[in-house]
Specification:
five-stranded antiparallel β-sheet, three-stranded antiparallel β-sheet
């Protein structure tokens, strides 16, 4: 009892201080554990709390007094003398990495418990004679953390050392790659057979479930689980075999090592969830050895290339995804891109053909501009037609499906495309009929006339004398009256009207005009007897005697009628003025009677 009293007083003194918990984790902690345990052993009232405290104190004494760290295995270069010992050393390293991962998880859990218990301990009453269960637990986890950290530090040092040993030993090891390849094919065949058997068992179980045979279905599930474990075992064997090929490629620094590494990754991914986690250190280790052997630059270049390949593969899959269907044929984004490319190439080729034809036709005198337009336009639209059919073929569409397109076009023509089709057909007619050619001077109405500069399948471009280009639909030239001044001949007879006053000598007027015309330098047809100029009196007007000068012109004089008429009118005016012939102006005679005479007439009538 005296011993117990002294121990109680000692505990009260210690826990009364702010750092009272230091008796459990300080340098004299082992001595305190033994004192507390002796005090508990003299207690007569055995409770659950007392038992728990005694158990925690025993653990604290054992972990403090008897715990010893077993040093992890450190490899030496002399221990590795072949591919077999190298692979054994590799798996030793993998085991150590697994223990590191396990200890890191344990350390994380202990830290979480310490964080929780520290909040309870900090709020506990310091005026007590014996530590609480929470304080003993805190001390136990504190000691456990110290032991885990020691083991973790030693294991990490061993992992780093053994990794360097594997790296240094690799160049001197001879790997039998031929044997590896033969063995790999055998194991791969076994894996395929096991996977097929697993699928058959799954199908059989599903069949039994549909038939309502639950008992047999449950038995079948057991067989499936066994077969899964068998598949995992064969897969792990294949991974071990693949590792031999990987180390052989790594030793030779062959690009194949990336394929081997990817093969190992895929095999590990095919394992069950638990087995997959176990092989995570394997993937991390071979990645580390690759980086140390080849250098970060080569690894980065490979990853960049691999990433680009993955992006390319993903993009290709997206482009191949069907967007819609035409006549039960799925159409993807790639089909549309190819179709647009073919169509663009068709337009480009057709444009180049048209420019080439227009360039080489200037070398041949006998080819008229109209023939040039016909050849260039026919080839242009023929190329576009061929490109259109190739586009349909590239999309995988049967040409018989054009009947559907033709039906849709017929409806469209009926509702709004009739003008486009009419202009297109009219253009074909005009091209082959040759009634309108490049260079012809046309007069469509009183306000529109000009030279033809281009002929399209939908419209004709007319350039007026004001240098304005006007697009006239082809349908206009088929349905309306069009005056072609240069269809068959570029010569034209112009009529220049003028008038003289009453009382003028008719013969003198005619001879004066013709003589002046003969002596002038104006351009008109002079050497053709059938096309000689003449002056004709057309009428006796209200204010003048009216004449017209008939004169034949050709070339530019024909295509510029206002300018040509201006020249002849100036000549006529000067001639009449020089010969004293009066040019009249409108006259009106007004007769006015005297108002007286008007009244007398009215009276007589009355």
């Amino acid at each position: 009892m005296k011993y117990t009293l002294l121990l109680t007083l000692y505990a009260i003194f210690i826990f009364a201080s702010p750092a009272g918990n230091s008796v459990l984790i300080g340098p004299d902690a082992l001595k305190n554990y033994e004192h507390y345990l002796a005090a508990l052993n003299e207690e007569r009232n055995e409770t659950a709390e007392t038992k728990l405290k005694r158990s925690l104190l025993y653990k604290l004494i054992n972990i403090t007094k008897y715990a010893k760290q077993k040093p992890p295995k450190l490899l030496e270069t002399s221990d590795i003398n072949g591919s077999g010992t190298y692979m054994k050393a590799f798996w030793t390293l993998i085991g150590q990495k697994k223990r590191v991962a396990h200890l890191q998880n344990s350390l994380r859990e202990v830290n979480e418990k310490l964080s929780y218990l520290s909040k309870i301990v900090s709020h506990s009453d310091s005026n007590r004679s014996f530590p609480t269960v929470e304080e003993l637990q805190y001390a136990f986890y504190y000691r456990s953390r110290e032991e885990i950290e020691k083991r973790l530090r030693l294991l990490k040092e061993a992992v780093e050392h053994n990794t360097d040993i594997l790296k240094e030993s690799l160049p001197s090891i001879k790997f039998d790659t031929k044997r590896y390849e033969d063995e790999y094919r055998k194991v791969e065949k076994r894996l395929h057979e096991a996977q097929m058997e697993l699928e058959n068992l799954k199908i059989e179980k599903e069949r039994l479930g549909l038939l309502g045979r639950e008992a047999k279905a449950n038995d079948m599930q057991k067989r499936i689980d066994l077969q899964k474990r068998r598949v995992d075992e064969i897969t792990k064997e294949l991974i071990r075999n693949e590792l031999v090929g990987f180390f052989g490629a790594l030793q030779a620094e062959s690009p194949k090592l990336f394929d081997r590494q990817e093969g190992i990754r895929k095999l590990a991914e095919s394992l069950s969830a638990d087995e997959k986690a176990e092989y995570a250190p394997v993937l991390q280790t071979i990645e580390q050895l690759s980086t140390q052997r080849l250098g970060k630059t080569k690894i980065l270049l490979h990853r960049t290339k691999e990433g680009l390949q993955m992006i390319e593969k993903d993009l290709w899959q997206r482009l191949q995804t069907p967007l819609f269907s035409i006549n039960e044929k799925p159409i993807s984004s790639w089909n549309i891109i190819v179709a647009l490319f073919i169509l663009a190439a068709g337009f480009t080729l057709a444009g180049l053909y048209r420019r080439y034809i227009r360039r080489i036709t200037h070398m041949f005198i006998n080819i008229t501009p109209s023939n040039q337009i016909i050849v260039s336009n026919i080839g242009y639209y023929l190329i576009l037609t061929v490109a259109f059919f190739i586009m349909l073929k590239s999309m995988g569409l049967d040409l018989s499906s054009l009947t559907l397109i033709a039906g849709a076009l017929s409806v469209g023509i009926g509702f709004g495309l009739q003008n486009i089709v009419a202009n297109f057909i009219s253009g074909i007619i005009l091209l082959f009929e040759k009634s309108i050619k490049i260079g012809d001077f046309l007069e469509i109405n009183d306000r529109l006339r000009g030279r033809v500069v281009d002929i399209h399948m939908r419209s004709i471009t007319i350039r007026t004398n004001d240098n304005i280009d006007i697009l006239v639909p082809n349908q206009t030239f088929i349905q309306n009256d069009v005056v072609n001044w240069t269809l068959s001949d570029s010569r034209r007879r112009m009529r220049i009207p003028f008038g003289v006053a009453y009382g003028s000598d008719i013969k003198m007027v005619k001879s004066a005009i013709l003589d002046a015309l003969q002596k002038s330098s104006l351009h008109y047809i002079r050497d053709d007897e059938t096309k000689q100029p003449m002056v004709v009196m057309t009428e006796m007007g209200s204010s003048s005697v009216n004449f017209e000068l008939f004169v034949w012109v050709e070339g530019d004089e024909t295509l510029k009628p206002l300018r040509t008429a201006d020249k002849f009118l100036v000549l006529i005016y000067n001639t009449l003025y020089e010969n004293g012939i009066e040019i009249p102006f409108p006259q009106l005679d007004l007769h006015v009677r005297d108002i007286k005479d008007r009244l007398e007439i009215v009276k007589r009538e009355e």
